[in-house]
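Design a sequence for this backbone.
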């Protein structure tokens, strides 16, 4: 605790310093957050209350929606509050908690996306062995691994930040406690720490992104031998995954591959994976998915009938 004895709280500068713009975005982000809650809750209820939960793809999608709900709830409510607050302050302990939780949930989400890509790869490249390879036990193992890797990533960042001295300015040029804006407040040379952050987050995210891109290239290559109907169905499913991966990974790569001292648009770009991607994910996975739309119709019809019969 000696390292940060001069800083007991931080103050967010926020996205904008214009009061009128902040009030407009207060309403906009409030609507976005309600859309995140509603869209991902609908997916969770639809999958868990239907036969879709038995399929690995939807099992992973259920976990992805849960991560979107938890992740946005870690970041967005405080952002919405701060947009109308006179002083955007957060205590040191709350800041460290937000840092750890946000990176834990984001890390889990990244590896759920990897699991979903693996599922599609096996379904298309090895269809006859699909149910053997992607059995329920293996699905559970993949989710457990996602949590283990997410925890390792976030605890490593947290321990590194806890060891740093914060003894000067306490204004964070961001709307959340993230490692890069915090490093700019450290009162010692951060060159080595910046390299460690790039290694822990930036290079890892790029490596995973390249693995995902390679898996989808292999999937496209193997689709050549399929019928036109089979190709359309597979491409429809894979295009949804690719869209979600691009929305999440590209902003992350931009933010975490650059050193902490560089001047860039980190806080504006981070809106893509903290607000926009979790809001669009339910739409991306349902609009072009006839199986999902059919299950939604059945589940909500059943629920409305049970309500009427009470």
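Sequence:
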């Amino acid at each position: 605790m000696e390292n940060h004895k001069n800083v007991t709280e931080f103050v967010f500068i926020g996205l904008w310093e214009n009061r009128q713009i902040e009030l407009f975005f207060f309403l906009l982000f409030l609507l976005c957050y309600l859309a995140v809650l509603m869209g991902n809750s609908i997916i969770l209820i639809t999958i868990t209350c239907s036969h879709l939960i038995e399929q690995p793809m939807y099992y992973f999608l259920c976990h992805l929606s849960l991560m979107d709900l938890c992740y946005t709830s870690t970041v967005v409510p405080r952002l919405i509050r701060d947009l109308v607050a006179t002083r955007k302050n957060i205590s040191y302990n709350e800041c460290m908690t937000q840092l750890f939780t946000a990176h834990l949930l984001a890390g889990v989400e990244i590896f759920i996306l990897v699991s979903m890509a693996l599922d599609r790869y096996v379904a298309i490249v090895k269809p006859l062995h699909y149910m053997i390879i992607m059995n329920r036990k293996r699905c559970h193992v993949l989710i457990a691994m996602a949590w283990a890797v997410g925890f390792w990533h976030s605890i490593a960042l947290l321990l590194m930040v806890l060891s740093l001295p914060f003894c000067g300015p306490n204004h964070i040029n961001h709307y959340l406690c993230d490692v890069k804006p915090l490093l700019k407040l450290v009162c010692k040379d951060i060159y080595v720490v910046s390299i460690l952050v790039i290694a822990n987050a930036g290079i890892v995210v790029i490596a995973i992104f390249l693995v995902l891109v390679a898996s989808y290239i292999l999937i496209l290559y193997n689709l050549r031998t399929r019928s036109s109907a089979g190709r359309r169905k597979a491409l429809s499913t894979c295009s949804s995954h690719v869209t979600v991966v691009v929305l999440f990974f590209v902003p992350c790569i931009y933010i975490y591959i650059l050193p902490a001292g560089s001047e860039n648009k980190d806080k504006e770009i981070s809106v893509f994976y903290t607000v926009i991607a979790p809001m669009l994910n339910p739409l991306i996975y349902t609009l072009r998915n006839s199986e999902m739309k059919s299950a939604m119709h059945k589940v909500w019809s059943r629920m409305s009938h049970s309500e009427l019969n009470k």
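The chain is about 75% helix and 5% strand.
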